[in-house]
Amino acid sequence: MGFTKYIILSKLAGIRNIWNVVNRGAKLKDSLIISLLGGLIGTMAMDISNLLLWRTNKTDMLYGHLSGSIIMRGVRTNRAENFALGQILHMVTGAALGIPIYQILKRTGKDHHIIKGAFAGTMSWGILYNFGQRAKLFSSKPHMTKSHYNALWHNILYGITTAQAVVSLSDSSLLTQKVQIAQDQNTFQDQLDTSWANANISDQNTSDYSNPVIQH
């Protein structure tokens, strides 16, 4: 139980340190760094939930075991050094998945970001977890039905936490509300229409001067 407490406290400390930076007003403008940090925070959140459920026998394995079974036999992931390798792979994957979540919020606006994050998490569960099981990507497989439900919950938690982290870490100039996006598009369209109208008037005036009417 001491090891479990240490892991939970270390992950909470990592999340707290990042949030302390945010609370001091240090917003970020680098979209890649924001995406990776957001994905990393989301991964920490799902790992804490996964660890608590694993300790209470409500799930078969930790994500370090599952990810480690991609590159080695599942039984070998019970060794600390092999589990650590699987955990690193899991966290790198989680950080990278923050990139598409950022892009979703960038293109659609940051309004309703919790719902968008939950949807993205559900999609990651459907694609990575289920496809990975069917494609026999993992040598370890959960046996309890509730482990599969827990995996769905953890991916939704990941998506929600990542979306919230991305919004909180981003400078206000990076992510806008959907209403603002629509207004910007309308403004651009108005400017484009005005430019075309001015160009047509200019062409008409040029045509009048280049083809003068000769009176007799």
What does this structure look like?
- This protein is mainly α and 216 residues long.
- The chain folds into two domains: 175 residues, no CATH class; 34 residues.
- It is built from eight helices and no strands.
- Helix 1 runs antiparallel to helix 2 and helix 5 packs across helix 7.
- The longest helix is centred in the C-terminal third of the chain and has 33 residues.
- The model has no long low-confidence stretch (mean pLDDT 82).
H/E series, N to C?
A: HHHHHHHH
Uncertain ranges: none
Total number of helices: 8
Helix content range of the residues, please? Answer: over 70%
Q: How much β-strand is present in the residues?
A: under 5%
Please tally the β strands and state the result: 0
What coarse outline follows from CA principal-axis ratios? elongated
Determine the structural class based on helices, strands and strand pairing. mainly alpha
The average pLDDT score comes to 82
For the largest beta-sheet, the strand count, sense and barrel status come to:
none
Radius of gyration: 26 Å
Distance between the termini: 107 Å
Query: Into how many domains do the coordinates divide?
Result: 2
